[in-house]
Amino acid sequence: MAGKGTIYTYTVIHSAAEDFKNKVPYVVAVVEEDGRRFAARVEGYEPSKPISIGMEVEHSGEDPKGRPIYKFIH
After folding, report:
1. Model's pTM, two decimal places?
2. For 26-65, how does the pLDDT look when each residue is reduced to its tens digit (9 = 90+)?
3. Domain span at 48
4. Half-sphere exposure of 10 (CA within 13 A, CB side)
């Protein structure tokens, strides 16, 4: 996981647990990359910009627990 992927499906989170309250709203997506699908947080969500299935995202790092983080390619 170090390249580009596409959004297979997604949800916008508006209400979150204490650890994520400062991040709402944020996107969690199932990202497809190299034939694999996995859940990842996608940074850079802006309510004024549309999100769609098939949209390209780019790997931007990992959270402290080693989970992948992607960002929108606009």
Report:
1. 0.86
2. 999 999 999 999 999 999 999 999 999 999 999 999 999 9
3. 4-72
4. 27
